[in-house]
Every structure is written in C-alpha cells, then in structure tokens.
Amino acid sequence: MSGYNWYVVQAKPGQTARAQQELENQGFDLFVPWISIEKIKRGKRVTEEEPLFPGYLFIWLSEMDSNWRPIRSTRGVARVITFGNKPAVVPGAVIEALRSKLRSDKEPEQVLKSQQKIEIAEGPFKGLNAVFVQYDGEQRAFVLLELLGKWQRLSMDLGSIRG
C-alpha cells in the first residue's frame, strides 16, 4: 500500500487502552506495544501489562487516502503528533524492530516454587545445589544452602540461580 505510513497518536492521560479500543472499533490499523512488568503488590509478586510508551499509539494511515477527521474526536485520543503542520511519520523499520523485540521477549521466564531444588549458576557458590524458599523483591530470592552441616538462608540475585 503505497503512501501509507505509521503515525503517532497521543492518548489522554491514563486512556491508552481506551483510545486503542475505540480506534480499532473504527477500523484503524494500530500498533500499541504492551509489555509485562513484574511488581510487588501487598507483598506478592504480580505481573501487569503496561504500554511501552504510555500515552502513545502508532496508527497506519495514508496522508492522502485515509479519513483523519474521526481520530481527533475519538474517546481517549488527545491529538495526532505533528511537526509543524505535518503529522509525524515513524519509519516502518522502527515499528518492525519493536515488534521483533517484543516477540523475542515473550519467551517463558522461569517461575520458581517454594521448596524447589535449584542450582547456583554464578558467584562464589557456583555449582552448588540449594533449595528455593521465596522471592525477595523483584530481582532476588531467598535460598537455603547447606554449608558445614547447617542450612543457611541466603538472599541471591535471580540471575544467578537456575531452576
């Protein structure tokens, strides 16, 4: 489709998902990169979906053939980003790179369960076996390691253990 490009639409604060839904209902082709974020809420580890660029959506349009008028009056949409009087064009290669990166990041991450046997992959205890106890924040875990005939509780970086 010659003449079509990716443009940027700014959503109203906190209404990225609403703007996406409303524009898709009108038949527009959109790309909104969403990522999974791990957070600690009320002491529990939860995964939430958040937009990679909060408040911004990418829309596939033709400057000549597409009807731009309904975009501005769509619920959740603040405006189309422009430079001067021209809508801001996002190169297709940037969108493809984002899509490719998001696809590669979707590989499953290890989820550890209490009392699961693990191996320490890095650091001074590399190669030793341990027992996973619980998560200690977003990037660390408590493990039990047997040293000199006693079980020691250690906090370790999640990247240094293997399930």
From TrEMBL:
InterPro entries, alphabetized: NGN-like_dom (IPR006645), NGN_dom_sf (IPR036735), NusG-like (IPR043425), Transcription_antiterm_RfaH (IPR010215)
Organism: Marinobacterium lutimaris
Keyword annotations from UniProtKB, A to Z: Transcription, Transcription antitermination, Transcription regulation
Residue ranges annotated for the NusG-like N-terminal domain, each copy included: 3-102
Gene3D superfamilies: NusG, N-terminal domain (3.30.70.940)
Record bears the keyword Transcription regulation: yes
One of the record's GO cellular component terms: cytosol
Protein name: Transcriptional antiterminator RfaH
GO process annotations (BP): DNA-templated transcription elongation; transcription antitermination
Highest taxon in the source lineage: Bacteria
